[in-house]
Design brief:
The protein is mainly alpha-helical. The chain has helices at residues 8-34, 39-48, 50-53, 57-63, 69-78, 92-103. It is elongated. The mean pLDDT is 92.
Length: 105
């Protein structure tokens, strides 16, 4: 199915919406890295905010303090979370295991 042709106004609106979504995700990851918010806050916000819900779990884990790309990947493998999983797609057990992993610190 080909993508629909957008007129200039619709294209501009879509670009603005995408830029706003990127800005919101970047701000959230920055606050997470700085320790202003925790994983519990991000997960609860994902339930209410569609933009946050579409964020990949790996991006959130990599934004956590002292967690990099390799550690996030290993953690996701250990907790049986797919590398392509988004916050919206996390099951109840996966959420609990993630929260338990970071509450021990």
């Amino acid at each position: 199915m080909p993508l629909p042709e957008l007129d200039d106004d619709a294209r501009r609106d879509a670009l603005n919406k995408a830029a706003e979504a990127r800005k919101l995700r970047a701000e959230m990851k920055h606050r997470l890295k700085a320790g202003e918010i925790d994983l519990q806050h991000v997960l609860s916000r994902a339930d209410a905010d569609d933009v946050i819900a579409k964020t990949r779990v790996s991006e959130i884990l990599e934004a956590m303090p002292k967690v990099g790309r390799v550690r996030a990947r290993r953690l996701m493998e250990r907790l049986d979370i797919s590398s392509s999983r988004r916050l919206r797609g996390l099951g109840v057990n996966q959420r609990e295991r993630l929260l338990a992993e970071f509450s021990e610190r």
